[in-house]
Amino acid sequence: MSRLLAVSDIHGHGHLLEQLLVASGYNSERDRLVLLGDYVNKGPDSWGTLQLVHELTRKGAVALQGNNERKWLRSMPDSIPASNDEITSVRQFLDQMPLWHTCDSYLFVHAGIRPGIPLDLQTAEDLTEIRQPFFESPVNPEYTIVFGHTSTYRFLVPPWQIWVGAGKMGIDTGAGHGYYVSLIDLTHRLQWYVSVHSPSIIRCTVIPGSSDLEDKSVYS
């Protein structure tokens, strides 16, 4: 059975995303994977993480653009260990990333949406940077909006925990702030998460809002 998986705000921790994909049993031919942006900056290996994301998209994943990818488009860091041709290729990859994606009953976006504006008229800045107007907006009855950008600890939940509101789900568990990278299985409402600090222990738990909130298993 195929699963719908999502991850956001990896921030240079591509090696941890690889570990989460292995722990979850990800199969690119069977599962659908959506990445919600902010693959670069703040972490140890932005370039390697981008290469991983690019490879995942070649195998069928969808990678959205985040505000940090937009920063790279405006000004690529001088420290990138790549040739001019490779940098040009990555620029094209970043520039062609979609800003939102729908699948089943979910709308995926990096930061959120501007209330009252049709999707096709939303600005790139709102889709990758919005906060309070989106958080305070009423529920969209058509979709559950899955978003990153704002770390879940800012919603006053433990930093490893997914935030679930009415019609909204925040999945940025703070890798860019020294906390966790999380991979979400929306089909079975499971979360795999791992700290950006050693030891790299991967845990799997049921997403809040389900009937059981206790840890299901632990991987070392």
From TrEMBL:
Top-level taxonomy: Bacteria, Bacillati, Bacillota, Bacilli, Bacillales
Source organism of this protein record: Paenibacillus vandeheii
UniProt protein name: Metallophosphoesterase
Domain Calcineurin-like phosphoesterase residue range list: 3-153
InterPro entries, per the entry: Ap4A_hydrolase (IPR050126), Calcineurin-like_PHP (IPR004843), Metallo-depent_PP-like (IPR029052)
One of the Pfam families matching this protein, by short name: Metallophos
